[in-house]
Amino acid sequence: MAEKKIVIVGGGFAGINAAKKLGRAQDCSVTIIDRRNHHLFQPLLYQVAMAGLDPSDIASPIRSMLNRYDNISTLLGTVESVDVDCQVLQTEVGVIPYDYLIVACGATHDYFGRDEWEDFAPGLKTIPQATEIRRRVLMAFESAERTNDLDEQKRFMTFVLVGGGPTGVELAGAIAEMARNTLKRDFKTIDASHAKVILVQSGDRILKQFPDPLSKYSKEALESLGVEVRLGDRVTDINGEGVRVGEQFVHARTVIWAAGVKANPIGKTLGAETDRAGRVVVQPDLSIDGHPEVFVIGDLAAAKDKAGNPLPGLAPVAIQQGHYVGKLIRAEVAGKITPTSRRPFHYLDKGQVATIGRRRAVMQSGRMRLKGTIAWLGWLLIHILYLNGFRNRFFVFLSWAWSYVTFARGARLIVAKAWKNSGTE
Amino acid sequence: MAEKKIVIVGGGFAGINAAKKLGRAQDCSVTIIDRRNHHLFQPLLYQVAMAGLDPSDIASPIRSMLNRYDNISTLLGTVESVDVDCQVLQTEVGVIPYDYLIVACGATHDYFGRDEWEDFAPGLKTIPQATEIRRRVLMAFESAERTNDLDEQKRFMTFVLVGGGPTGVELAGAIAEMARNTLKRDFKTIDASHAKVILVQSGDRILKQFPDPLSKYSKEALESLGVEVRLGDRVTDINGEGVRVGEQFVHARTVIWAAGVKANPIGKTLGAETDRAGRVVVQPDLSIDGHPEVFVIGDLAAAKDKAGNPLPGLAPVAIQQGHYVGKLIRAEVAGKITPTSRRPFHYLDKGQVATIGRRRAVMQSGRMRLKGTIAWLGWLLIHILYLNGFRNRFFVFLSWAWSYVTFARGARLIVAKAWKNSGTE
Question: Can you give the residue ranges of the FAD/NAD(P)-binding domain (chains A, B) (predicted)?
C-alpha cells in the first residue's frame, strides 16, 4: 500500500497525542504544524503568570517531544486555510497536500465583540500573555509603592478578574496569596496585604461545572483569602481606569480577562457547520460531514457526549480525542477498519479538579467530591503526573515544594518588553 | 547625630553589595534605585541566551534580596541626572536628596558609533537581550529546516560572534555544542551539526586577559567543537545579510555582538572627568574629585590598581568596590573615620575563569593555571557559590547536572514578542 500523508495542525494536547499514536505507524508519514515551537501545559499557565513557575517548566519543544519517531516531522509555521476538496493546506511556507488531516488548533479569548478591551484586560492562553500578566501585577505593586496619592495607590492595589471559571478562580486566589504572603515583607510604604482582589462572575456561582457544594466551598475559600466574589454581575465596560460592573465603576489599574473563548478562525475555512463560538460541528467519529479524511479535535471541535451534551474545552477531552483519532487513522491505513466501520468517540469523564490556593482545592470524580487539603494534594499529583517530560515534572515538583515551605515565588521578575539598548524599558 | 540619607543608583554587583554592607547600619537610611526590579547574575546570562537556564534562575528581585534590612528601601525607577552641588538626583518619580551617593549603574554595549548595527547584532547585557538572542538562534535552525534553497539554508546555519572576550567565547562554544548535541536529533531535513560558528576577534588572541597558553588552549578547544576562530580580523559592516570581516563578506542570518562596552550616560552628569568609554575617573577612595560624598563603583568607574593599571569591568571588582564603599560610609557615619582619613581601595585579584563548553574551561589564580575538566569544575563551583540565593543555586545546579547527563537544554522555547491575540507572532 502507498504511504499515507497525515497532517496535524496544532501541537496542543489534542495534536500531540494524535501524533504520538501515529508514531512509527506503518505507511504513515506525519507532519505536525504549529506556529509556536512548543507544546504548552496550559493548566499550569496561570502559575507562570503568578511568578510561581518559569515558562520552560511547563513548555517543551514539539520537535523534541516527537524526535524519537522517524515518521513524524515538525514544521514551525502558520496555516492560513484548508481546501478540503483539493486536500491541501495553505501555509506560510507553501502548499501542503494530505491524505488525512487533523485540525487541532484550539481556541483563543473572546471579548464578545469588544476587542478594544484586550489592551486593558489581557487573557491567559500563551506564554507572552502569562508574562505580560505577571509584569502588570508586579508593576502594580511597584507603582503603588512609588506614589504618594492615596487614591492612586488604591487603584494600583485593586485587581479585577473577569470570569469565574477555573482560570479566574486560580488567578484570584494566587494574587491574594502573593499579596498576603510573598510581597508583604518586601514593601516599606504600602502594605501589600491590603491589596483588593475582585472576581466578577456573570452567573450565580463560580466553577459552575462542579457540583453546587464545591462551588460554594470555592467561593468561601476565596473569601477567606480576602477575595471579593461578585456573582450575577456583568462587566459592561473596561478602560485604563477600571471596570464597569453593572451600574458601578470599580477603579482598578489591573484587570485580567478569564471569560469568553472563541475557536481558531481556521475552523471556518473547512466549510463545515460551526457553532456560535466558531467551533466546528463534528460527526461521532470526530470527522466533518462529507469528509471522513478530515478530523477536528480539541477546543476547536464542537463534539457531544452520549447524552448529546457538548463536551467541555478541557485537556482530558483533547487528549482522549487525540488518542482516538491517532489510533483510528493508524488502523484504517493498516486496512483493519474502513471509514464506514469506524466506532464513535466516547469521552471517559474521569472527573475534574480546580485549585484556589494553598491547601484549598475542589475535586470531583464520579460521585466522589473532595475539598480542602486532600483535593489540593490530588490536584498537585494529577498535574505533576500529566506534565510532559520527567525534567519538567521534577523541576515543577521542586519549585512547588520550595514555594510551599518558604512562601516565596521564584520567578518574580519584571522584564522589559524591548531588548534594544535604545528601547524604552 | 542626625540620620544620613544614602542613595545607591543601580542594583548590580556593586550596588547590591554596597547596600548589604549598609544594612542595619546606625543612622543610615538607604534607598536603592534601579530601573529593573531584579539583580542579575550577569556571568551566567549567556546560558539564558543559550536555552540552558531560565531568566529567574539567575535573577532575584532586589526588594526581596534586601527585605531583611529595615533601613533600606527599594525604588523602581530611572535616574535622569545628578546635581552634585545641590546633592539631589533627578528621577522619573521626583527629586531625591542625598548625603552620600553611590553611583553604580554599569555599562552597556558600544557599537563604536554604528548604532544601526544593533538591529542585526544584539548584545548581551539584559534578560530581554538574552531571550532575543535565544529566539534568533533557535529560529535560525527552524528557518533552515523550512527552506529548500541550499544557499539560504547555509546562511541560516551560519552564526557570527563579534568579540573574543569571555562572552563571545562562551556563546560560540555553546552554539556549537547545542548544534552538535542537543539539536542534531530534532531536525529531519537539515543536519544541525553542520552549523557553522565563526568567532571574530580583532586582537591576535582570544581571552586576552588570560595568560597566553590559556588563550591558545581556548582557541583549540573552540576549534575542536568546530568553531572557526578568526584572529586579527575586524568587522567593518553588519547588515541583514551578514558581516563584512576585513575584505570578505560572510553570509550569516545570525550575528551576536560581544565587543565594545560604554558606560551609562549618567556618569557624565556628575561633572567629573570621564575616560574614552565614558567611565568616571575616581579617586583612590572611589569618590569623585571635589565630592567626597559621591562614589562611583562597578563598571561605571575608571579605577586603577596599585600599579596604576585600569581595573577590568568584572564582577569581583564590582563586589569588592561595593563592600569597600559600604563599609567606608558606615564607618564615617559612625564617626570612626573622616573623609581625610579614608584608606584607599585595593582590589584583591583572586584570579579568573572562563568556560568554552563541556569539560573545557580555563582558570588562572596567581601563578596557578588550569585548563580542561579541572578548570571547568572550578568554573561550575565558583558560579554556583556566587549565585545569589539558595534556591537559585540549587535549581541551577540541578539544571546543569540534568543537561550534563542528557545533553538537553531545558529552556528551548521560541516565545513571541507580542502578547495580544491580534498581534503578529
Answer: 4-322
